[in-house]
Specification:
globular, alpha/beta
Length: about 400
């Protein structure tokens, strides 16, 4: 089968969760099918990145512009449209023309849209089975933001953003023959809250490359904690602020030598507002995050906001680094709390478990072993890619039979 994939980001290098997911899903398809990739250029593409994708893509075309138009005209169009502003302001005639040209020349059997941003271009292709990787249900995250907002005017704006995204997600699950989500929770919400037909919803969880992320790649450092997430993403900044304000003082009271390392870009994030900065190290962007995570006594994930499932948790578990998370941080993952990882929503409980993992090597070793076993059983990208490939093949067959019955 020939598959045309439309991507919001060029899926390499693997330095961001959505790119990691796109890369491994495409790699899974390429095991049995031919691939053509049409991608936005989110940043200048290096020759080595292109070569990495050519290992399994038969054709690659790049639309050399940013995927979002944040000009005044683009934003105003978004305000007065029933569709989300990101969809309206992000529409690219160049992407539309390129995708249509590749479709005419390459004659695919199916089109795959990677995130809602590329959905409009897939919907322009008539007569082809369509699959979309919805990934996160953004309407859920927007609803949480609306609930948390106190300012009356901003509250109205947040509700409109939520309502538009929810209506758009409803449309996507009807317009596409298959919509992919990452957890059983999202699978249920797509059917119950978005009215998605059961046959149009496919569960394809996030995963981890178990060959790349292996325990033992760095010696464990005493007193070291890590949060692996760029603070330029607000839910990450909010999580770190919560940890340093509510949890870390209790950790330091019991383990004064504890230190927190935060990986990823800080950009314009207001890091000066964060407390206890003497005990915090900002590593900046790391080409290889594995040694930083593997050398930590524990990975803390005190998220209060967000959607989908967290690759940072899966990567830490694969490296043998125990995780202490809030319920929101661990949301959507299938695990046994207290065995595979710790879930603590009260600051005192979060701090107590963090201190135990800092100070009790045997406890840490037990969580490390069970966490690695979990990802081996449920979150191996190789298995997930094969499952995804089968879902796509079943969708193609189902639409073929439906077309035959119509004729």
């Amino acid at each position: 089968m020939r598959i045309l994939a439309l991507s919001t980001w060029f899926p390499y290098p693997l330095d961001q969760g959505s790119k990691i997911r796109a890369y491994h899903l495409l790699k899974g398809l390429a095991q049995r099918h031919e691939l053509a990739l049409v991608s936005f250029e989110d940043k200048p593409i290096q020759p080595a990145w292109m070569e990495a994708m050519r290992q399994f893509c038969d054709r690659i075309e790049i639309v050399r512009r940013q995927p979002f138009d944040f000009s005044r005209q683009g934003i105003v169009r978004g305000w007065f449209s029933w569709r989300p502003s990101a969809v309206v302001a992000g529409y690219s005639p160049e992407m539309s023309n390129c995708a249509q040209q590749v479709a005419r020349e390459w004659r695919p059997d199916l089109v795959l849209a990677i995130t809602f941003v590329t959905a409009p271009y897939a919907m322009e292709m008539k007569g082809l089975p369509r699959v979309i990787d919805v990934d996160n249900l953004l309407s859920d995250m927007l609803y949480e933001a609306y609930q948390a907002e106190q300012h009356p005017l901003r509250r109205v704006r947040r509700y409109l953003a939520y309502w538009k995204m929810r209506q758009y997600e409803k449309q996507l699950f009807r317009a596409f023959d298959l919509g992919l989500i990452v957890s059983r929770r999202d699978e249920q919400r797509a059917q119950e809250h978005l009215g998605a037909p059961k046959s149009h919803v496919g569960l394809v969880p996030n995963g981890v490359d178990l060959e790349y992320y292996r325990p033992g790649c760095a010696a464990v450092i005493d007193h070291k904690l890590i949060y692996n997430g760029a603070l330029t993403y607000y839910p990450n900044f909010n999580a770190v602020k919560y940890f340093l304000s509510e949890i870390f003082p209790q950790v330091l009271a019991q383990s004064p030598q504890a230190r927190l390392y935060i990986t990823g870009n800080t950009g314009n994030a207001p890091v000066d507002e964060l407390p206890h900065r003497k005990q915090v190290t900002f590593t900046g962007y790391l080409d290889d995050i594995r040694p930083a995570v593997a050398s930590s006594r524990a990975c803390v994930v005190p998220l209060q906001q967000g959607a989908g499932t967290r690759l940072k948790i899966l990567e830490a578990l694969a490296l043998g680094t125990p995780v202490v998370s809030t319920s929101k941080g661990a949301e959507g993952l299938e695990f046994e709390a207290g065995r595979h990882l710790v879930v603590a929503d009260h600051p005192a409980d979060f701090a107590r478990w963090t201190v135990r993992l800092l100070n009790e090597p045997e406890l840490r070793a037990e969580f490390a072993e069970q966490g690695r076993r979990l990802v081996e059983e449920k979150y191996d990208w190789r298995q997930i890619g094969a499952q995804f490939c089968q879902l796509v093949e079943e969708t193609r067959e189902r639409t073929r039979k439906r077309g035959a019955n119509v004729l």
